[in-house]
């Protein structure tokens, strides 16, 4: 089956970890992931500035590794990201902000990317803050 | 046409579980994860709601890691615990997934 | 055939960005002329309350976005009747044309769509 | 020794208002703001709880901008609306402020 | 004389950072030897549940932080009895020594402190 | 009276705006603000990278202006900020992150600053997400 995974909760929210474990299990089960889409507070998961205490799981890094290792199409909603201060080089320049902080592997794009993925997948599965 | 509903908020603090149970049909499924598994605590109001739903032929599942983390005992016979592979299977088996985010 | 999506909006209009960001999903889909519907459930029904004055909270008028839905091909706002009743909202004096859904039909309604996004 | 409790979550979605009302004493105050003012809607369960608390001599306030934004009508006689200056005054008048964040 | 603070922790231990960040306030105050107390209310009482296995969720053991409280001068954990009962937790098999507070005494208890922080 | 204002909710949360209006009203009423302390999700309010749509209030900027205009002691909890990717120059260097994004006027410091302020004030008022 083809899955789209949408994540809405903050990086340290239980739902964000659950979304990652679900995505890993989907691949392990022989399924395909069309796209991962970060929206609402989840855009922070794509921030390269997150610093986790050494004895805690670094959810930003874990997602980044998953996306890289499996060549996942990984999109961050641009409108949600701007409001929450997650900027790529282009947006940082456009709005004259101190520095880009979007982690490698993620791309800023519009909500249309969520709909496009929904058109291509069999199941859209959304994960929230809890 | 069946729906898998996924609820993860505490039933004591939040209205999601109650709202979900009211629209659950016999052919739908309910997966409890996160703090929503606290609804399984014996002798509580949310547990009574779930018992009632199960008696009315609703299929209720729970994510095993959340049960384990909370050391939940006295689990009902009608409950089916699933791991992530099982969660993925349920997502395929039901025709859509509604995450109560 | 295009896959359909139901957006379920469960948050009050003044809870931060939740209601707005749910509506943005619907509007974005409408812009692509996708088959899409909006269901207001639980606190989401407060979005319909008449006479709102968002300017007292320095907020933009979400109501205007709701009114824009038909321009994006979303002709009706679906609303759970029991959510309205429980919250003391008068069905006859809402600010928008709506289609009421009875509690017993909510599960069937959701099952009409290929995808569901609840916010 | 008096406490001003400030509640701002929706009483339909969240347990804060109910939890707060149960520990409110006659000498304490309750300030409703944000979505908590929806508890004032006529004919609802949260309103009945507030009516009961008011009848038991609890002092209940609401932030006026939140009443205005929601065009709330049929407000009870026992309710005292305050602006931000009033909110600050209440914070001084009561001996501590407990924000139910 | 130092001003006292009551930290009221209302969130379950697995809800993200809320319970941990409430406890951090208490521990930070304890480190300064300030008069400080912790009250578990509503879902906060789940922090006391015995036999928790945080490793199944790749989480750190919050329970260890609770046990550390006496080292920071916070001798007792105060707990709302009705919150425990409502959630089906057995008072006799909790993982920590606690002091129960009856519902009718909660308001008076809170009023003993100069400041209150609820998380 | 002397107030300490603690803010816990995200920049766009109603509670964050209410905290600002309360703080302004406190000063207007002749009171003193000992310190503003950002904790939990509120640390994002001190991010210099937030970009608000032009027709919306920019809460980060509004707080920043309030802090500057009134010379408010404005502290952001460092542990909460690291986890959420709000870094000053020192922390960005220490953890080798792309760039500092703490807005001018705010200082990263420990939770002890909340307790110190609580010792100096008559009222500690906390604002959350709602």
Provide a concise account of the structure shown:
The complex is a heterohexamer, with two copies of chain A (130 residues), two copies of chain B (101 residues) and two copies of chain C (119 residues). Chain A is α/β, with parallel strands linked by helices and 130 residues long.
Number of domains of chain A: 1
Which secondary-structure class do the elements of chain A indicate?
alpha/beta
The CATH topology of chain A is given as: Hypothetical Protein Ychn, Chain: A
Number of strands of chain C: 5
- Got a strand count of chain A? 5
Q: Please state how the strands of the largest beta sheet of chain C are arranged side by side.
A: 4-3-2-1-5
Instruction: Encode the helix/strand succession of chain A as letters.
Output: EHEHEHHEHE
CATH fold-level topology of chain C? Hypothetical Protein Ychn, Chain: A
Annotated CATH architecture of chain A: 3-Layer(aba) Sandwich
Rg of chain C over CA atoms, rounded to whole Å, is 14 Å
Percent of residues in helices of chain A comes to: 25-40%
Description:
- The complex is a heterohexamer, with two copies of chain A (130 residues), two copies of chain B (101 residues) and two copies of chain C (119 residues).
- Chain A is globular.
- Chain A has a five-stranded parallel beta sheet, sandwiched between helices.
- The two termini of chain A are 26 Å apart.
- Chain A has a single domain, classed as Hypothetical Protein Ychn, Chain: A, CATH 3.40.1260.10.
- Chain A has helices at 14-28, 59-69, 78-83, 89-94, 112-120, and strands at 2-7, 32-38, 74-77, 107-109, 123-127.
- Chain A is α/β, with parallel strands linked by helices.
- In chain A, α1 packs parallel to α2 (59-69).
- Chain B is an alpha/beta fold and 101 residues long.
- In chain B, strands 4-3-2-1-5 form a five-stranded parallel beta sheet, sandwiched between helices.
- The radius of gyration of chain B is 12 Å and the shape is globular.
- Chain C has a single domain, classed as DsrEFH-like (Hypothetical Protein Ychn, Chain: A, 3-Layer(aba) Sandwich).
- Chain C is 27% helix and 18% strand.
- Chain C has a five-stranded parallel beta sheet with strand order 4-3-2-1-5.
- Chain C has 119 residues and is of the alpha/beta class.
- The A-F interface holds A 10-12, 41, 44, 47-53, 60, 79, 82-87, 91-92, 95, 97-101 and F 10-12, 41, 44, 47-53, 60, 79, 82-87, 91-92, 95, 97-101.
């Amino acid at each position: 089956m083809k899955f789209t995974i949408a994540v809405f909760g903050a990086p340290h929210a239980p739902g964000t970890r659950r979304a990652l474990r679900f995505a890993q299990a989907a691949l392990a089960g022989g399924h395909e992931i069309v796209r991962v889409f970060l929206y609402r507070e989840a855009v922070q998961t794509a921030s390269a500035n997150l610093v986790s205490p050494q004895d805690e799981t670094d959810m930003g890094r874990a997602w980044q590794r998953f996306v890289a290792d499996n060549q996942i199409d990984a999109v961050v909603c641009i409108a949600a990201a701007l409001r929450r201060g997650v900027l790529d080089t282009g947006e940082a320049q456009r709005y004259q902000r101190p520095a880009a902080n979007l982690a490698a592997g993620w791309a800023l794009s519009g909500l249309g990317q969520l709909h496009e993925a929904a058109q291509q997948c069999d199941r859209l599965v959304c994960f929230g803050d809890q | 046409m069946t729906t898998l509903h996924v609820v993860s908020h505490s039933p004591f603090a939040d209205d999601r579980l109650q709202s979900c149970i009211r629209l659950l049909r016999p052919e739908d499924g309910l997966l409890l994860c996160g703090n929503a598994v606290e609804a399984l605590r014996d002798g509580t109001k949310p547990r009574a709601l779930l018992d009632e739903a199960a008696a009315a032929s609703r299929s209720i599942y729970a994510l095993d890691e959340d049960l384990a983390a909370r050391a939940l005992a006295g689990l009902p016979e009608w409950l089916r615990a699933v791991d992530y592979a099982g969660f993925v299977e349920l997502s395929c088996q039901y025709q859509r997934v509604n995450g109560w985010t | 055939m295009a896959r359909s999506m139901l957006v379920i909006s469960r948050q009050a209009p003044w809870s931060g960005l939740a209601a707005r960001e749910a509506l943005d999903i619907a509007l974005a889909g409408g812009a692509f002329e996708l088959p899409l519907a909006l269901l207001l459930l639980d606190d989401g029904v407060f979005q319909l309350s008449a006479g709102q004055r968002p300017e007292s909270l320095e907020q933009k008028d979400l109501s205007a976005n709701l009114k824009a839905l038909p321009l994006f091909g979303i002709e009706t706002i679906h609303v759970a009747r029991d959510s309205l009743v429980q919250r003391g909202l008068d069905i006859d004096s809402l600010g928008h044309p709506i289609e009421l859904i009875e509690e017993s039909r909510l599960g069937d309604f959701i099952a009409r769509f290929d995808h569901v996004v609840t916010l």
